[in-house]
Amino acid sequence: MSYISPTTAPDPYAQITDFFNGHAGRLLEIEILPSSFTTTLIDGPNIGIPKGVLVAAFLAARKIFFDNYKCDIYDQPRLQLALEASRIVLCFDGEHLTAINFRKKGLLGQKQPSLQHITDELVLIESFLTSPLHRHTKSPTLWSHRRWLIELWQKTPKSGRGQSIMPSQFWDAMLPLEMRVVTRAGERHPKNYYAWSYARWLYKLHQRESGPEDPSQAHLPRLHQDILTWCLAHPSDVSGWSFLLFLLSEIPSKEAAAVLVDQLFAPSAAFCWSHEAMWACLRTALASDKILDHEPRELLLQRVVDRLGPRVGVVASHPDDDTSLGLAVQERETLAINKALGWINRCYHK
Question: What is the three-state SS of 58-110?
Answer without folding.
Answer: HHHHHHHHHHHCCCCCCCHHHHHHHHHHHHHHHHHCCCCHHHHHHHHHHHHCC
